[in-house]
Specification:
The complex is a heterodimer.
Chain A: E1 7-12, E2 15-20, H1 25-31, E3 51-55, E4 63-66, E5 77-80, H2 103-106, H3 128-137, H4 140-145, H5 155-159, H6 166-180, H7 185-195, H8 200-207, H9 211-223
Helix pairs in contact in A: 3-6
Chain B: H1 4-21, H2 30-40, E1 49-51, E2 61-63, H3 64-70, E3 87-94, H4 98-109, E4 114-117, E5 134-135, H5 144-154, H6 161-180, E6 206-207, H7 213-227, E7 231-234, E8 239-244, E9 250-257, E10 262-273, H8 297-304, E11 309-310, E12 315-322, H9 336-339, E13 343-345, H10 359-371, E14 376-377, E15 383-388, H11 389-396, H12 400-404, H13 406-414, E16 424-433, E17 436-438, E18 450-452, E19 457-458, H14 469-486, H15 499-510
Parallel strand pairs in B: 3-4, 3-10, 4-7, 10-18, 17-19
Antiparallel strand pairs in B: 1-2, 5-6, 8-9, 9-10, 11-17, 12-16, 13-15, 14-15, 15-16
Helix pairs in contact in B: 2-10, 4-7, 4-14, 5-6, 6-14
Classes of the chains: A alpha+beta, B alpha/beta.
């Protein structure tokens, strides 16, 4: 251990302990002997497995974040809260003619939202309350365009006094919208070409080529 | 925020930006690329490699880290395991990423009973970390043939032609399937799938969803798997051994219940290995962009069962892994940052490679700069080169980075680094296992009834993978493996045994191979780098 290492005192899962400075919450847990597996995923802030709740020194407010991204500072009091329960509706979207119209049937609690804003704790900085308002008002495009970055960590759901799971509501809308969009013309054209065996002559030409001929063909294509 | 020592170096990057802006750096001729790779690419660092002494690939070259695992005993006392199957199913899928879930969905669609077991949570995988996009030849100027040629060329003509052909031909159809289940790919004004170019690709072929492509596909797949009753999902239950019958055919697996800390057996008519790659083995000491679970379990299990591996001496080191701050080391900066004009700059403020060279060449060039003393050192002693992101902002207009790379922008804002004003310190990060378990066009390995899909499978990408091809191959071969595995549901699975493991152990002992490693690894030994 380097002599220059600075130490800080933090409270990890209710245990006051001295740790080296600069560790993330996950690293601090590992360092102090917690064999954390349930709340670990990508370690890059993308999978949403390692949700944490914390109070910073001198603050009066409980905050939320991701354990692999939150760097521990002096006086931090933090617990992990992975896998917070949220209700996900079960549905077969392909069986619905207009899934958007059935949103209310699958997530009726959405319409009890009174826009309290408690869900605005998103580590991806999504304005969750805003998205829910769009969803409630039927502006689905506006809702969907704001949740591309949702990592499904469920922190918003953990704060909702009405037990709405905004991450699942948003996902439903994203999927439903995608299904209602017209089929992309460029893909339709390509599929038709593949189906009518438009590339067969080219394939058989290539199949007969040795590696050197193929390399020459590649070089020619790169030039185009 | 950057410390003082790095801010001095950033000043050099800022001062040279104007000069570098118009500078055109020619692409290296083939011979020079070859030389660069031989000298600096980790795949050519002979000290990092040895030849396997046992198994189907005896004599083949691989890294010490992987050879250690393949030539190892398990820490499992096989004689103490109750091999009476606790579960019985048609198809057992191991792995809960894109390939595994796709395989499970297609196997179920054929009427097979499916169990999907995964080490971590369902969906915790490298799939969600695929930022850039997926290759599919849908553009008018493009064709599956062109895609085929590009893929082979990127892989230095070592990919298996029939597998590459299968992948590119299935590409457009698999995109149709993704659209059908509700994946919302970015569109252009006419409603076409929006396509982009990338390094080593001769036509616009990358389709994406913002810079969170894999994540948004995985969200939909997870939602889809929830709908039916036909797939039982077992989380926190990694496979520690495959089982075979008297004919050496695969017929199940021994899983480890992480919560109860006990082993149990699932018997199946077919097994699909989709547990991903091996980035978390940190080969040759490199940082990794991979998720926590990527410890190469698939190749270890399959190898003991007798499966042939392919190309296990070839790995992809993504040129731009984060090197500062410490807790983000190894995290990927997407290739799109270079496609859009982000320059690689050394400590002297000079460029040293055309940024649109293939990934392996860029990585080798960065390693060269750092070894020759042109790298930039962080307070904790790590070395890297700058990726000039402010230049992208300057070229494309204010607010571009925040709009185009919202996730990356946010991740750095959390640590008070504004990537539109400050460059990023980067160094190659272990990103992808180019090889894996050899499969055929249906996804089956050389062991009967054992399938592989996704990064675990090998033979497709040759010695270097082009951007966007892995996000394609997981769906193409996941689907194919799922469909073919489901057809085996009328098989008689036979007795569940570990005969192949005992035979493997006998070989190890007779060759006097003793190893301190135990495998599979399951979880990386985490070394907190700051201590």
């Amino acid at each position: 251990m380097k002599n220059s290492t600075k130490f800080i005192i933090v409270e990890l899962e209710g245990r006051k302990i001295r740790i080296p400075q600069g560790l993330t919450v996950i690293e601090a847990l590992w360092d102090t002997g917690y064999d954390v597996k349930r709340g670990i995923g990508c370690l890059s802030g993308l999978c949403g497995a390692c949700t944490v709740a914390f109070i910073e020194k001198g603050s009066t407010k409980v905050k939320f974040g991701l354990g692999c991204q939150k760097v521990a500072e002096e006086g931090l009091n933090v617990i992990m809260m992975p896998c917070f329960p949220s209700r996900a509706a079960r549905y077969a979207m392909e069986a619905m003619a207009h899934p958007l119209e059935e949103l209310g049937a699958h997530y009726p609690e959405l319409y009890t939202c009174n826009d309290c804003g408690a869900c605005n704790v998103c580590p991806e900085w999504i304005n969750v309350a805003g998205v829910m308002k769009f969803a409630k008002d039927g502006d689905y495009e506006a809702a969907a365009s704001r949740v591309t970055d949702c990592i499904m960590c469920g922190l918003c759901a953990s704060r909702c006094p009405r037990s709405i799971a905004p991450q699942y509501v948003a996902l439903y809308i994203q999927r439903a919208l995608a299904r209602e969009r017209p089929f992309p013309p460029n893909l339709a054209k390509r599929l038709a070409q593949v189906e009518s065996l438009a590339y067969e002559t080219e394939w058989s030409r290539i199949a007969a080529m040795g590696d050197d001929e193929l390399k020459a063909l590649c070089a020619a294509m790169e030039g185009l | 925020m950057y410390p003082e020592s790095l801010r001095d170096s950033i000043a050099i990057v800022d001062a040279t930006r104007e000069k570098r802006k118009g500078e055109a750096l020619p692409k290296l001729p083939g011979t020079e690329t070859e030389g660069l790779l031989r000298r600096y690419h980790p795949d050519y660092r002979e000290a990092g490699f040895r030849n396997l002494r046992i198994g189907a690939n005896r004599g083949d070259r691989t890294t010490h880290e992987i050879a250690d695992l393949l030539e190892a005993f398990s820490d499992l006392d096989h004689s103490k395991i109750n091999l009476d199957p606790e579960f019985d199913t048609d198809v057992l899928v191991l792995g809960g990423g894109g390939a595994g879930v796709t395989a499970a969905l297609f196997a179920e669609s054929m009427g097979a009973r499916v169990i999907l077991a995964t080490k971590l949570r369902l969906g915790n995988s490298n799939t969600i970390m695929a930022l850039g996009g997926l290759q599919a030849s849908v553009h008018g100027d493009d064709s599956p043939v062109r895609h085929f040629v590009d893929t082979l060329a990127a892989g230095k003509f070592t990919g298996k032609r029939e597998l590459v052909k299968t992948m590119v031909e299935d590409g457009p159809a698999i995109v149709r399937w993704l659209l059908e289940i509700g994946v919302d790919f970015d569109r252009d004004e006419e409603g076409n799938l929006a396509t982009r170019k990338a390094g080593g690709i001769t036509a616009p072929r990358i389709i994406s969803i913002g810079d969170y492509t894999g994540l948004n596909i995985m969200k939909v797949l997870k939602d889809e798997i929830r709908k039916g009753e036909g797939i039982e999902v077992m989380e926190f239950a990694p496979a520690v051994e495959l089982t075979t019958n008297g004919f050496g055919e695969c017929n199940g697996a021994v899983l480890f219940d992480l919560g109860r800390k006990r082993h149990f057996v699932v018997r199946a008519r077919a097994v699909i290995l989709a547990t991903g790659g091996s980035g978390r083995l940190h080969l040759q000491g490199f940082p990794s962009s991979n998720n926590f679970g990527a410890t190469g379990d698939a190749i270890v299990l399959a190898y003991r069962a007798g499966a042939r591996l392919e190309g296990i001496d070839s790995f992809q080191y993504h040129p731009t892994g984060v090197m500062f701050p410490d807790h983000m080391v190894g995290v990927l900066v997407t290739e799109a940052a270079r496609s859009l004009g982000g320059q690689l700059v050394n400590a002297q403020g000079e460029r040293f490679i055309n940024e649109l060279e293939t990934r392996d060449a860029c990585s080798a060039a960065i390693i060269r700069e750092c070894e020759e003393g042109n790298g930039v050192r962080t307070p904790s002693g790590k070395v890297g080169v700058w990726l000039d992101t402010p230049l992208i902002e300057e070229t494309h207009g204010t607010g571009f980075l925040k709009r185009r790379f919202p996730s990356m922008y946010r991740h750095f804002m959390r640590v008070k680094i504004d990537i539109s004003k400050r460059p990023l310190l980067t160094y190659p990060t272990l990103h992808y296992q180019n090889g894996g378990i050899l499969i055929d066009e249906t996804g089956e390995t050389t062991v009967r009834n054992l399938f592989a899909a996704g990064e675990a499978a090998g033979g497709i990408h040759g010695r270097n993978r082009a951007m966007g091809n892995s996000l394609l191959d997981i769906f193409v071969f996941g689907r194919r493996a799922g469909l073919e595995a489901a057809k085996r549901k009328y098989n008689v699975p036979g007795n569940v045994t570990l005969g192949h493991v005992y035979r493997y152990y006998d070989r190890l002992k007779s060759l006097r191979i003793s190893s301190v490693a135990t495998s599979p690894t399951l979880f990386p030994e985490f070394i907190v780098s700051k201590l």
